[in-house]
């Protein structure tokens, strides 16, 4: 654990290794951030990040809506211009800000600012919503890209699903949400979209976090009570893929604690 001496949020960004021109994916709990910086608003926080990385950099924040088709007909319809994000206040604020664009994936959209908007190399609505042709695949190919976790653990690490797809784990294309009536189909204002994968539970990704910290490949930073993880994407690709390929079961919750993970374990018991 490294304690940071940060009197302001911009100082935290410098201590976390962000440089002008950086490519950054952000996951954060604004409640936790505000405990460390009580006067900070979400808009100011985002503007501080933008000022640090400059428009030549890229800021990516998930803006997921989970608009899946359901067997009982109760599904929501995704509209990239109006559908609220279901992954937190930072995400909901960011995708509505000036110069931010949103991808059109009906279940797992991303909000984008900076170079990523016009760089190409990603599909706005890929059939593998968190796979090779998604924004995550573009992120994986960028030099010196980082993922910044502010007040959250690897349970919020969307990139963990990309590792599952790219490894691949045996259950990569197996939907674990049948008990909720969820189908492998996204629904948007442009119609229905058949998906290759439906991402499952992410709580077990914390085991990868523990592995990286214990092996000293990753350091936990603290700004007061705020826990910060600044993770090079190349580290997640190298160490993360090696980890999940050696220990695929560790990317599932313990038996009996999680219906989606139990469904995947049962379906692929022979393969594991």
What does this structure look like?
The chain is α/β, with parallel strands linked by helices. It has one domain. It contains 9 helices and 11 strands. An 8-stranded mixed β-sheet has the order 1-10-11-7-2-3-6-5. A 3-stranded antiparallel β-sheet has the order 4-8-9, with no helix packed on it. Helix 1 (9-15) packs across helix 3 and helix 6 crosses helix 8 (233-246). The two termini are 35 Å apart.
What's the structural blueprint in terms of helices and strands?
Layout: E1 2-3, H1 9-15, E2 23-28, H2 30-36, H3 42-53, E3 58-62, E4 68-70, H4 89-94, E5 101-102, E6 110-114, H5 135-140, E7 146-150, H6 159-166, E8 182-188, E9 191-194, H7 206-214, E10 221-223, E11 226-232, H8 233-246, H9 259-267
Helix pairs in contact: 1-3, 6-8
Provide the structure class: alpha/beta
Q: Hey, roughly how much beta strand do the residues contain?
A: 15-25%
Tell me the number of strands: 11
- Straight-line distance between termini: 35 Å
**Order of SSEs:** EHEHHEEHEEHEHEEHEEHH
Low-confidence stretches: none
